[in-house]
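User: Hello, can you help with two protein structures?

Assistant: Certainly.
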Amino acid sequence: MLNRRSSLTRSPLARSSGGERVRTPRKRSRSGPTDTTRQGVYERDGFACCRCTRPVSDSTPVSIHHRTPRGMGGTRAPSINEAPNLLLLCGSGTTGCHGWVESHRDDARRDGFLVASWEAPETVPFRDLAGDWWLLPDKFERILVGVGGQVAP
């Protein structure tokens, strides 16, 4: 016989002002970077997309991209939400440069927008559309390491 019990628990019940029982919504846990890290990434990347260099504005949707993917179930590795693993990209996971990275994974890996789980993001440069290569070696630091498609030795 199948055991249909799961580790999922229901939201707690509370009483409304009328006395009936109502379900209270659970607080959703945040699995992404902290607000301080998010702000630091925006500032480090100059409030512009790291791929096309389009400035961030109210009319340009942007998102923070994880170079090493979090995986479908997420991860507990703290490095996944640290600044060297994060890039500011225009669009969502399906539009703009972020959409391009997600749908052209081999090209994105070649250009440094995707990093394998065994690689350290701070050692893998990425290339913008102008052909310039950038390295994110530390918390909120961004260093030009190659111009016009050539990485400096």
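That covers the first. Now for the second protein you mentioned:
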Amino acid sequence: MIFMFSWIHTIGHLAGSYVGITSHSLEEVNEKLMYKKFKTKPKYWELLFKTTPGITGILLLIVINMLTFASFYKCWRKCFQIFSLVHAIGVPMFLIMMVVHGSESWFNWHFPLTIITVPFLVAIFLFYFFFRIKDMLCWWFVIEDISITSNRE
């Protein structure tokens, strides 16, 4: 579901950004971008590769695609370690990049909102890794099943 909506969101931005750039003046474009100011009207690729939302949007789409493809049954079944590694690294990266991706337009506070939001994400990340490490340790130090039998006849 996230995979599908991520692509719909991306296609909407690709189409909407082109219209926004061509129909607005340089001052209006710079006002919307807030932290990245262009001296000339930006080209489409400049918005993708020279702005924080553009770069993080591309990285988010790569992470979402990796998470989705690692979750396919055939991939998951053949190499669970790849599935596990992609999710252990990808989920925290996804959460952190989501904050950075949208932080420029949240109430026009870039720095203070990030300070408020990032500790929350770090807490989720540590909570997530605590249980992942606990599960891994339990798997490494597996105690064989002990069966109790009755001596009654």
